[in-house]
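R.M. (postdoc): so does anyone remember the format we settled on? I'll just put the structure tokens first.
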């Protein structure tokens, strides 16, 4: 099969959007599309028409046509199957199939067309995969944004609390100062008297008139400028023995704010990160088709004095993983005593960059190693609809899964599903035709749960099911960092560590 171009055109052959998959000039594709309606006027209403050089495979879309232009020796059955997939893609992005809506979503449609055909040949994809590829949804980005937002909120809260402490300290200092004034409390009159006392202690400039009021300089306030009265007031307090933090150091304030925004795990000069990624495909009737786990241990050293170190690793793996050390790491020391260090202990690790020091992986067909088992039962109710029962089971109860989302495809154009029973929350996305079953946490306390709903459709409409989650409490293979020591002298080194279990693909097909 060689597909030359895919286009959406009006009844008179005017191209609304067109995507060429081989080298073609604009005049060539416009000429082919302009000739298409003339061939339709012969009275032969088939799904395809041919000329001496090309074949048009088409399907009506209300007031326009979805047209594929192929070579004459391409397989017509494959052409028709590809045409049906193209016709199903358009309603995914255009709610009202007219010229204005097609042109408004032109780029989205072209990107989707590129996922169906590459260099003239059909790709093995379905509608759900096209949606996933075009959206480029990243679970890792969601986790990063959520962590980042939490850090920003914490930093703002600490800033507000610190600002309240500074204001309270200033009030207490001004109440207890030895500058005279009424003991009835602090008010605007007391503040004015204090300003006058401080101003009198400093020789006035001869150029300033004496009639200028002390409470107003007569000048507009200038943002970002230093106030001399504030500086004089602070100097006066310091001369009397008070410990006052400078309010003019804007740079130091920014540094403090930046420090509160940095994750706690990255504050140490030696930081170790363990990252595990799962790739799982299971069958809808049970059985694990493929499970691949790939993991990497990263080391980052920010201070050159900790370049020559040994890392102690506690390997509690009982799942049969294959381990591999970096070529410059002493493999014998790791296998015999669980210590990761360079073969030459006098040479330091690279500074200020993530260095992979250990990796391991697992490829298995053992269903018991799946962290989360999903069982989906769609039953035809005999009335043109389905009753769907879906349940989950946490098989590795030592794990704590965060932000679990089970995405179930549902038929389009039939309305929202009727939820009968539910553990957790749900969201129906009518545009993407997906029912999302979400649970914030799955652990040993809620290791099983179920959802039941009804909707019009057939059992095949509810697959493939996609699952996403992450875990930071414990690693999948239970690899733990127990300590870091200097290579010379074996003195302990303060370090920080983190581990993350992520999902690259978790699909029930």
């Amino acid at each position: 099969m060689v597909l030359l171009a895919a286009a959406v055109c009006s009844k008179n052959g005017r191209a609304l959007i067109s995507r060429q998959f081989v080298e073609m000039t604009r005049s060539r594709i416009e000429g082919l599309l302009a000739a298409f309606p003339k061939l339709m006027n012969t009275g032969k209403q088939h799904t395809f028409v041919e000329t001496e050089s090309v074949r048009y495979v088409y399907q009506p879309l209300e007031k326009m046509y979805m047209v594929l232009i192929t070579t004459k020796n391409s397989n017509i059955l494959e052409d028709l199957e590809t045409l049906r997939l193209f016709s199903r893609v358009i309603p995914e992005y255009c709610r009202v199939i007219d010229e204005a809506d097609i042109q408004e979503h032109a780029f989205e449609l072209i990107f989707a067309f590129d996922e169906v055909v590459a260099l003239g040949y059909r790709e093995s994809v379905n509608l759900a995969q096209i949606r996933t590829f075009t959206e480029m949804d990243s679970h890792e980005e969601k986790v990063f944004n959520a962590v980042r937002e939490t850090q920003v909120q914490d930093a703002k809260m600490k800033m507000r609390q610190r600002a309240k402490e500074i204001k309270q300290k200033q009030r207490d200092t001004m109440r207890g100062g030895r500058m005279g004034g009424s003991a009835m409390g602090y008010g605007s009159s007391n503040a004015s008297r204090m300003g006058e006392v401080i101003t009198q202690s400093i020789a006035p400039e001869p150029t300033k008139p004496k009639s200028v009021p002390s409470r107003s300089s007569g000048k507009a306030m200038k943002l970002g400028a230093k106030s001399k009265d504030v500086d004089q007031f602070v100097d006066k307090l310091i001369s009397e023995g008070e410990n006052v933090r400078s309010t003019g150091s804007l740079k130091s304030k920014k540094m403090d704010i930046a420090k509160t925004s940095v994750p706690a795990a990255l504050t140490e000069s030696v930081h170790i990160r363990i990252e595990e990624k799962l790739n799982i495909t299971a069958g809808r009737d049970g059985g694990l088709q493929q499970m691949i786990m790939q993991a990497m241990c990263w080391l980052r050293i920010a201070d050159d004095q900790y370049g020559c170190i040994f890392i102690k690793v506690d390997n509690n793996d009982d799942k049969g993983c294959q381990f591999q050390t970096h070529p410059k790491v002493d493999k014998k020391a790791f296998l015999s005593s669980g210590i990761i260090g360079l073969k030459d202990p006098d040479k330091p690790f690279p500074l200020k960059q993530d260095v992979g020091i250990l990796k391991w992986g697992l490829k298995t067909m053992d269903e018991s190693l799946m962290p989360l088992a999903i069982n989906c039962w769609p039953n035809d109710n005999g009335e043109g609809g389905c009753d769907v029962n879906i349940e989950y089971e946490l098989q590795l109860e030592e794990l704590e899964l965060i932000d679990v989302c089970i995405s179930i495809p549902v038929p389009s154009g039939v309305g929202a599903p009727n939820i009968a029973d539910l553990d957790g929350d749900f969201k129906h996305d009518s545009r993407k035709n997906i029912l999302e079953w979400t649970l914030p946490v799955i652990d040993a306390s809620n290791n099983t749960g179920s959802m039941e709903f009804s909707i019009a459709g057939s059992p095949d409409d509810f697959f493939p099911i996609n699952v996403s989650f992450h875990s930071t409490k414990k690693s999948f293979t239970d690899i733990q960092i127990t300590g870091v020591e200097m290579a010379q002298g074996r003195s302990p080194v303060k370090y920080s560590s983190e581990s993350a279990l992520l999902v690259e693909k978790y699909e029930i097909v």
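R.M.: ...and that's the designed sequence above, right after the tokens. Also worth knowing: The chain is about 30% helix and 35% strand. The two ends are 27 Å apart (CA to CA).
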